[in-house]
Description:
alpha+beta; CATH 1.20.1330.10; 3 domains; 5-stranded antiparallel β-sheet; 4-stranded antiparallel β-sheet; 7 helices; 54% helix
Amino acid sequence: MKVNSNMQALIAQNVLRTNEEKNAASTERLSSGFKINHAKDSPAGMAISNRMNAQIRSLYKAKDNASNAVNVVQTADASLTEVHNMLQRMNELAVKASTGTLTSADRNAIQDEVNALRKEVDRIAKDSEYNTQNLLGGEQEMKGYTENSSVKVTDYDVDFPKGQYKVDIAAKTIEVYTDKDKTTKKAVSNLKDVSAEDGIFTATLNDGSKLVLSYDPASPVATDVDVTGIGGMKIQVGTSTGQEIQVVIPKMDPEALGIDKVDMRTEDDARKSIEMITKAIEYVSSARSGLGAYQNRLESTVASLAETVENLEGSYSTIKDIDMAEEMVDYTKLQVLVQAGTSMLSQANEQPQQALQLLQ
């Protein structure tokens, strides 16, 4: 029997301390709901869960971005609905003004209404905004530049390769420069078709993407064209650079629609106006069709992001979250062991007192 070294007490104390530490850790897990509260709990699990949590939070924002973009497209389409209605009215007036039964006073009255409609189209193009950003005034078009002022880049698809091109409208050819100094050029390898008619030059690639230029039909010239690839509204729909959707909305003012010179004050001009307005209606219809395609794509993106987030949340929960039922079993066991250890330590500390009986 030893007094200075109570081995039973030391053993009970060590076991009690270990169980108390485990019980404290179990209490923390039950309180937080996480099975990984510190890096020491699972170094690899902590790194994986933090990276996954960052991705999940970013995807939530990307989903919000896509949802906001749907609202942008809907706003633009709503404005174009009114533009479409006004063009339809202008078409009716043009047909009416083309008949020979009207007087000059009648046609002047028709022209006054046409002027009012044209001003309203111009106002809608200037004032249609989303979050202070203009939608129909050309700010959301793809940007392109030409060397000759008589030729303008009317439109080009997002998928049309950016670069510097040599366009010969009269010869109906397009080549791409292979160096910045514009000393060497080659044929566009994936070119499908080139057309130049009625002041519109169109280069179409095999994938369907187009470059559209407007020119003076009286002088079809050759010019350099810079396709910048800049423009539109880029919507970040992913967690990495480049995961974006570029929403392009063409300019919709009277000049872009080709109705800035519509005049119905004579019978001949009224007949010419019918063709001009018909082209404007086709232009707006094409733009609205494109907006519809954007909306469908963005809504699919929102649905896809929601499903991705759901799956990642499940994986994150598997790594990070605690199983409350399983942890409660361990917690209850540890509580019993702590209580038992405390009782045994108390009994072990009483054993040295038995040595007093030998001294009596």
